[in-house]
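Supplementary Text 2. Reproducibility record for the structural model of the 46-residue chain.

All settings were left at their defaults, and a single model was retained for analysis rather than an ensemble. We include the record here because the model underlies the residue-level annotations in Supplementary Table 4.
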Amino acid sequence: MLYKYNLYNKKHKALYLIVFFVFKQDGQALILSARDMTKAERRNYE
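Retained model, structure tokens:
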């Protein structure tokens, strides 16, 4: 069974990213998608 994780990160003052990934059986992370956060996601993060 795979579980999807979300990683929220503020890299710079104006750059907020959200990364979706799963851990593979060997323990490595497989990135599914990465994008800028929406305004609503930014409010929840801050």
